[in-house]
Amino acid sequence: MPLDRATLASSGRSVDSSSLSFPSSDPPSEYSWVEEYQRSYPRWKSLRDSFQLPIQVTTSRVNQFDAARLDVEMSAMLKEQLVKVFSLMKPGFLFQYEPELDAFLEFLIWRFSIWVDKPTPGNALMNLRYRDERAVPVGGKAVRTGLEGPGLSVSQKIWYCLTTVGGQYLWSRVQSFSAFRRWGDSEQRSLARQSWLLLQRIEGLYKAASFCNLLIFLYSGRYRSIIERVLRARLVYGNPNMNRAVSFEYMNRQLVWNEFSEMLLLLLPLLNSSSVKRFLLPFSKNKSSDSSGNDAACPICQSNPTIPFLALPCQHRYCYYCLRTRCAAASSYHCARCNAVVVAIQRHGSSETKPSNLGDIRESSN
Question: How far apart are CA 41 and CA 168, in angstroms?
């Protein structure tokens, strides 16, 4: 039911203004906004850090593989020097203790590198270090390049030693013991045969897991081995402003020289030295001086002939055995001094002796 304006006006006048009461409050202080900012900033910072992604850091895969290879080479060098110490002892003395020797060297490298928060020799050359990926800071003032983060914890270092040093030693010992006991023979009892099959399956599973880890590593660039992936020990650059410390110029020269030497070892047995000399003889500048100066010596063995023979028709003097073997081996022998075709040989100083034809020499040799 609608009310008219007079009724509303009368009801409004009947309300006493004194009956209305408003809450009284003091105005905010001058620094109240500072207090509110200090109270809400930690919550805003935690909210910002929760949505902040870590800086993506890409470590060169080649550097990581090179570091592993350099560590292997360093261990081999130390082993070689240690073996030389026992070189005067009984032969084969260190062969039966080779797993212990390898484990001892690996333990020394671990003790003076990873245990004291230092990189291994290969990692140091590649400017790499291990970082605990579980404790990587996400953001803040401490994060500038993405390479920040603590090193490995004590538990990670101990497990790394047990898996790399102890694991490899135990596996090599078990393999040598099983091979010596011939667990893989079919004539062995069932327990030894089953143990051998179990070792083979474990080895196969480990190789398959290593291959899968390699594929993941090539894709992501993290954790080059299964042990590093399980321990969350990642290789990152130790210094973001350091260039690659290894120069491969010497390695490239060494590879080229090795390939060239292998090619020479393959081709030199196929070449005939006398044919090469005959080919290069026309291009020699001192051909006349050499032939005149060393005319008394045999051009093949470079010594004075005990039984001198002449090559006809050029009349150059040879040893009998040198000239005869060359003429019997080649279908057409050329003189080593003048490159003329030798058709017969004759004893030096006996003009009455009939020259021997090359055909008769080959028939007599056959």
Answer: 53
Token couple for 351: 């003009």
Instruction: Using alpha carbons, select from 221, 251, 234, 231 the residue that is nearest to residue 123.
Output: 234
Predicted TM-score of the model (pTM)? 0.54
Instruction: Give the tens place of pLDDT for each residue, 204-234.
Output: 999 999 999 999 999 998 999 999 999 999 9
Closest to 156 in 3D by CA, of 88, 228, 238: 228
Is the model more confident about 349 or about 304?
304
pLDDT at 140 over 90: no
Q: What pLDDT score was predicted for residue 17?
A: 45
- Phi/psi at 246 (5° precision): -105, 130
DSSP class per residue in 211-228: HHHHHHHHHH---SSHHH
Residue 113 — left, alpha, or beta (φ > 0 → left; ψ -120 to 50 → alpha)? alpha
H-helix or E-strand spanning residue 10: helix 5-14
Which residue type sits at 169? Y
* 3-state SS track over 248-265: CHHHHHHHHHHHHHHHHH
∠ at Cα 171 (166, 172), nearest 5°? 100
Alpha carbon distances (Å) from 189 to 182, 195, 203, 227, 310:
11, 10, 22, 35, 80
- What is the C-alpha to C-alpha distance for residues 296 and 307, in angstroms, rounded to an integer? 12
User: Looking at the chain, how many residues does it have?
Assistant: 366
Highest mean pLDDT among 47-61, 109-123, 265-279: 109-123
* Rounded-to-integer distance, Cα 354 and Cα 360, Å: 12
